[in-house]
């Protein structure tokens, strides 16, 4: 085991990034024209990085498995993006955003990275406004804000319930400008299947053209991985169906350490599971918790009556409802962090108060908000004595303006009108805080291989605050990697083109081809989804919202057995040289089979509860997470050895010099 060098600059926290930028090596614009960079993933992190690097003069190749970068999963981030601009005058600051981020992550994030994220947040908003992103505005023209979980200020900028989509369109437009200039070559419907390392440095990739099926070699002086998170290891998640871990896992197998894989976030406001037929889950934005009140019946008999259809939620008076988040966490109420809200919902449902047919749902109710906004708008319209019906109509108008597309989406899926009856929600797998270990420069343990956004581990600790995913992706892409990758590439100005005829490229392509042949020639009995669902059941039941030593030990053994069965009995129809969705899924699920075991191993190693990692053996008398700062205040970075069960643990000790580390409380 070794201790990792995070390359955090010396000096005061607020000066680290500025000083670091001044110390970095620069590259002459004429020399940038001779340097090639590969970017894997074209969501917010990858798209913004590709556009900015190309604008600086580098030759950029982008790769995405979708038919267009506009389909990146970033569009699903509906609720907003954080920035400490303090437009509301409610006491926000860079330090406050930094503190909320570290506290929200249960003191398991790197202090310097979290502060840099807060420091850059305001620049992101300015950049995106300049691009034409249609953020919501108040009547006077100022950008509007709302709150998200884990904070006491309003710092979330938004575009209705389409924030991720609008931000992605901004990055995509910036990319298109560089494509038109010839500085970006876009490879859509291509998937990276291996990293090529030459003389210890990342020098290219093996990619598969998903339409023709052909394998391609692409070389570069550096490779940037921005391929998102790995939540689909659970099969059912809020992630897009194609979201996967393949790019991250391939570089892990080539020497990039994988950090904190057990830190997975369970989002509290998801449409509940309805049956075994489902292949994904739909997220209701956390922004809804600004105005929606979460509750279950106070009496079990009322919950039972609602489950059986004998009562409707609106039959219960306010006194008969348990607004349990407001009861347990009066300071933050319905806006506690995601991990806290998720565990609280699970506790109520496990105790028998769940409200849908499966008993795995709670209510998210907008009746109070509709009435409150209705009275306000009636006064604005000069109606000082509105009827109950007028109040409701005014209130519905306001809610529709703020969340209309989310309400429409819910009604289409559930066939219930959320303006009239409360939504039903339940926690589901969402974001992954773990990822590839990177230093302050966002470089992995493979020189020349950089990792951005959700694919790395760096900024969120054990739990990400709502509306911070978009912030990290754009900060990494627009404002961090353009500086830090230049420092690395300054040594390559005389290197020249990287050839794709080297033995390393030969070996990598042969390995990929052998793997594809093995899958296609297997002729087993079961589909890829058959195994993926089995893996998902193991992960959710034994490495999901709650874990314990026995379950994690069992999970490791069961995943290993399932992996062996997968390679023995999976059936992949079709051929390589065609559009073959089953073959795509098979390569990704094969990686999930290995990652799942490492996640269980990491969770078993961490004998504490922190953020999204909740070990049942380690909790307070009130059911809150119980950290062990003396023994586990470190980043767990795992080195691949050929077998997930035998990976080697490396530690990066976490030091907090600017904030007091204490038990998290939102009461």
Automatic annotation (TrEMBL):
GO terms for molecular function: electron transfer activity; flavin adenine dinucleotide binding; succinate dehydrogenase (quinone) activity. Pfam families: FAD_binding_2, Succ_DH_flav_C. Its cofactor is FAD. GO terms for biological process: anaerobic respiration. Gene3D superfamilies: FAD/NAD(P)-binding domain, Fumarate reductase/succinate dehydrogenase flavoprotein-like, C-terminal domain, Succinate dehydrogenase/fumarate reductase flavoprotein, catalytic domain. It catalyses: a quinone + succinate = fumarate + a quinol. It is found in: Cell membrane. It is a peripheral membrane protein. This is succinate dehydrogenase. Its EC number is 1.3.5.1. PANTHER family: SUCCINATE DEHYDROGENASE 2 FLAVOPROTEIN SUBUNIT, SUCCINATE DEHYDROGENASE FLAVOPROTEIN SUBUNIT. Residues 36-470 form the FAD-dependent oxidoreductase 2 FAD-binding domain. The active site is at residue 338. Belongs to the FAD-dependent oxidoreductase 2 family. FRD/SDH subfamily. GO terms for cellular component: plasma membrane. Residues 532-666 form the Fumarate reductase/succinate dehydrogenase flavoprotein-like C-terminal domain. InterPro entries: FAD-dep_OxRdtase_2_FAD-bd, FAD/NAD-bd_sf, Fum_R/Succ_DH_flav-like_C_sf, Fum_Rdtase/Succ_DH_flav-like_C, SdhA/FrdA/AprA, Succ_DH/Fum_Rdt_flav_su, Succ_DH/fumarate_Rdtase_cat_sf.
């Amino acid at each position: 085991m070794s201790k990792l060098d995070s390359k955090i600059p010396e000096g005061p926290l607020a000066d680290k990034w500025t000083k670091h930028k001044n110390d970095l090596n620069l590259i002459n614009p004429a020399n940038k024209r001779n340097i090639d960079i590969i970017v894997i993933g074209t969501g917010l992190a990858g798209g913004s990085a590709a556009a900015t690097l190309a604008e600086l003069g580098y030759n950029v190749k982008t790769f995405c498995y979708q038919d267009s970068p506009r389909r990146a999963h970033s569009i699903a981030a509906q609720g907003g993006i954080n920035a400490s601009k303090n437009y509301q005058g409610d006491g926000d600051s860079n330090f406050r955003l930094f503190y909320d981020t570290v506290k929200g992550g249960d003191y398991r994030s790197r202090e310097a990275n979290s502060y840099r994220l807060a420091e850059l947040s305001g620049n992101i908003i300015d950049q995106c406004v300049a691009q034409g992103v249609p953020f919501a505005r108040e009547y006077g023209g100022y950008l509007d804000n709302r709150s998200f979980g884990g904070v006491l200020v309003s710092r979330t900028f938004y575009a209705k319930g389409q924030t991720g989509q609008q931000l992605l369109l901004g990055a995509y437009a910036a990319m298109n400008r560089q494509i038109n200039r010839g500085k970006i070559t876009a490879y859509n419907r291509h998937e990276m299947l291996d990293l090529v390392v030459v003389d210890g440095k990342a020098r290219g990739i093996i990619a598969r053209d998903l339409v023709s099926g052909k394998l391609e070699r692409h070389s570069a002086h550096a490779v940037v991985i921005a391929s998102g998170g790995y939540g689909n290891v659970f099969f059912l998640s809020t992630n897009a169906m194609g979201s996967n871990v393949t790019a991250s896992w391939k570089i892990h197998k080539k020497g990039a350490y994988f950090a904190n894989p057990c830190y997975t976030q369970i989002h509290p406001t998801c449409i509940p599971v309805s049956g075994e037929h489902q292949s994904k889950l739909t997220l209701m934005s956390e922004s809804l918790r600004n105005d929606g009140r979460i509750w279950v019946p106070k009496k079990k008999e009322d919950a039972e009556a609602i489950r059986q259809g004998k009562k409707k939620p609106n039959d219960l008076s306010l006194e008969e409802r348990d607004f349990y988040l407001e009861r347990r966490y009066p300071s933050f109420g319905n806006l506690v962090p995601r991990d806290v809200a998720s565990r609280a919902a699970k506790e109520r449902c496990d105790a028998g108060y769940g409200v849908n047919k499966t008993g795995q749902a709670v209510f998210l109710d907008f009746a109070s908000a509709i009435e409150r906004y209705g009275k306000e708008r009636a006064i604005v319209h000069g109606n000082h004595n509105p009827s109950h019906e007028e109040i409701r109509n005014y209130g519905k108008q306001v809610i529709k303006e703020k969340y209309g597309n989310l309400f429409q989406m819910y009604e289409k899926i559930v066939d219930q009108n959320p303006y009239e009856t409360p939504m039903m929600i339940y926690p589901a797998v969402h974001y992954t805080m773990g990822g590839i270990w990177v230093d302050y420069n966002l470089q992995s343990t493979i020189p020349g291989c950089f990792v951005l956004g959700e694919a790395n581990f760096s900024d969120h600790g054990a739990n990400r605050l709502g509306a911070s995913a978009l912030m990290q992706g754009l900060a990494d892409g627009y404002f961090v990697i353009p500086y830090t990758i230049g420092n690395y590439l300054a040594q390559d100005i005389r290197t020249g083109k990287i050839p794709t005829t080297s033995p390393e490229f030969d070996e990598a392509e042969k390995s990929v081809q052998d793997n594809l042949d093995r899958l296609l020639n297997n002729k087993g009995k079961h589909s890829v989804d058959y195994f993926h669902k089995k893996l998902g059941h193991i992960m959710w039941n034994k490495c999901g919202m709650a874990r314990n030593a026995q379950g994690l030990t069992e999970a490791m053994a069961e995943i290993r057995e399932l992996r062996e069965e997968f390679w023995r009995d999976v059936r992949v129809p079709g051929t390589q040289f065609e559009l073959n969705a089953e073959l795509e899924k098979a390569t990704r699920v094969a990686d999930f089979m290995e990652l799942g075991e490492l996640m269980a191993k990491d969770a078993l190693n961490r004998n504490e509860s922190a953020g999204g990692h909740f070990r049942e053996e380690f909790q307070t008398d009130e059911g809150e997470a119980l950290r062990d700062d003396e023994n586990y205040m470190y980043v767990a970075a795992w080195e691949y050895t050929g077998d997930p069960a035998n990976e080697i643990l490396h530690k990066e000790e976490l030091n907090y010099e600017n904030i007091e580390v204490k038990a998290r409380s939102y009461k």
